[in-house]
């Protein structure tokens, strides 16, 4: 049994379409997903704004709130919470060139409208976390945007969200690339700098995704540690990644068990979750998976977290401290590998 509470998003169980091929499975209704999430041990659901309220662009503010209340009733029915709401700006024609950093004032206003509606939805769902995955907040053409001006515009946008609702927290999920070439906020270090410049730094933190750190050439555990050191690790998205390829969202631990161990170790060692934080699983089901077993990747990821927690509990801190004092790092590395292989 894990010490952590887990969350997933409806998109984690998808139809299998990707940039290179069409869907291979039928869509599953939201209620069926939520019911299954509860059955396999999930505690909370992650939402994009249009996961909770489809066709959001064509609804009034009151209609949006009413639709969100229907989703809250579904969550209550199955005993789940909402972890966060994220404006899905990257999928809209208005934001092909970014939202908060768009060169179009009209598109910028649309991005802010969706952000405020995400806050409205979060209120109705009973959560206060707004996650910003800044998917297109950067450049496709290096000279197309003034990076100083656009970084300031991003901070201005976050400030407007903080002012709109004094209870929300804005959690930025950094990623270095894809779908853009160059992100204006590619790493946790950038998130910390942006946070410090906002009107309320205590309400701006980070979501660390394992695969995004790998894509930046960084160690996911150290990215988590950096955010923890500042008290700003609002959530994690555990998954795995086979090198600097497209964002793969593989099951946690599928590629690098030692890296996965160190991610769980840094979370356990620093009592992550004690303030209500969730362990999010941003894992995608393979296109080859049959529809009747399309939650297997989530189940596998939970099992991996639990098994690595057990390894952390068995970790001999006294012996490790002795080796560290002797600078016998070869012995320490051998001990870790033996622990993981045993």
Description:
It contains 12 helices and 10 strands. The longest helix is centred in the middle third of the chain and has 21 residues, at 105-125. The protein has a single domain (6-310), classed as Divalent-metal-dependent TIM barrel enzymes (TIM Barrel, Alpha-Beta Barrel). The protein is globular and about 60 Å long. It is an alpha/beta fold.
Please outline the helices and strands.
Elements: E1 6-8, H1 30-39, E2 44-48, H2 49-52, H3 61-78, E3 81-86, H4 105-125, E4 129-133, E5 138-139, H5 147-164, E6 169-173, E7 182-183, H6 188-197, E8 204-209, H7 210-215, H8 220-229, E9 233-238, H9 257-269, E10 279-281, H10 296-314, H11 317-325, H12 329-341
Helix pairs in contact: 3-4, 4-5, 8-9, 9-10
Summarize the structure.
With 342 residues, this protein is an alpha/beta fold.
Integer-rounded radius of gyration: 20 Å
What average pLDDT do the residues reach? 97
Alpha-beta content class: alpha/beta
**CATH topology tier name:** TIM Barrel
The CATH homologous superfamily is named: Divalent-metal-dependent TIM barrel enzymes
**Topology order in helix (H) and strand (E) letters:** EHEHHEHEEHEEHEHHEHEHHH
Main-sheet strand order equals 3-2-1-10-9-8-6-4
CATH architecture label name: Alpha-Beta Barrel
Biggest beta sheet summary? 8 strands, parallel
Q: What fraction strand?
A: 5-15%
Count of the separate structural domains: 1
Low-confidence stretches: none
What is the number of helices? 12
Helicity range: 40-55%
Beta strands, count: 10
Describe this protein with a few key phrases.
single chain; 342 residues; TIM Barrel; two-stranded antiparallel sheet; 44% helix; globular
């Amino acid at each position: 049994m894990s010490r952590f509470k887990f969350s997933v998003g409806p998109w984690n169980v998808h139809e299998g379409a990707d940039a290179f091929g069409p869907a291979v499975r039928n869509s599953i209704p939201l209620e069926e997903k939520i019911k299954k999430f509860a059955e396999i041990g999930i505690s909370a659901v992650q939402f994009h704004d249009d996961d909770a309220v489809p066709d959001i662009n064509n609804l009034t503010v009151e209609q949006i709130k009413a639709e969100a209340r229907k989703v809250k009733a579904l969550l209550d029915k199955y005993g789940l919470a909402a972890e966060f709401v994220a404006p899905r700006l990257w999928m809209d024609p208005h934001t092909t060139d970014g939202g908060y950093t768009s060169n179009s004032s009209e598109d910028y206003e649309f991005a802010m409208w969706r952000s405020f509606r995400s806050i409205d939805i979060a209120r109705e769902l009973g959560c206060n976390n707004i996650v910003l995955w800044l998917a297109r907040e950067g450049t496709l053409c290096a000279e197309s945007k003034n990076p100083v001006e656009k970084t300031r515009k991003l901070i201005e946008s976050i400030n407007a969200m903080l002012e709109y609702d004094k209870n929300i927290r804005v959690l930025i999920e950094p990623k270095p690339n894809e779908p853009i070439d160059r992100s204006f906020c590619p790493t946790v270090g950038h998130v910390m700098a942006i946070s410090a410049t906002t009107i309320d730094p205590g309400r701006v933190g980070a979501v660390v995704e394992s695969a995004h750190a790998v894509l930046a050439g960084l160690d996911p555990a150290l990215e988590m540690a950096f955010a923890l050191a500042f008290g700003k690790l609002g959530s994690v998205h555990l998954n795995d990644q086979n090198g600097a390829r497209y964002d793969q969202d593989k099951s946690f631990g599928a590629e690098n068990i030692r890296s996965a161990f160190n991610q769980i170790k840094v979370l356990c060692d620093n009592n992550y979750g004690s303030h209500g934080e969730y362990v999010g699983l941003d894992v995608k089901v393979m296109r080859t998976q049959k529809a009747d077993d399309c939650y297997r990747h989530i189940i596998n990821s939970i099992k991996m977290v639990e098994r690595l927690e057990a390894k952390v509990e068995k970790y001999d801190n006294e012996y490790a401290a002795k080796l560290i004092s002797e600078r016998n790092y070869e012995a320490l590395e051998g001990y870790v590998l033996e622990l993981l292989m045993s």
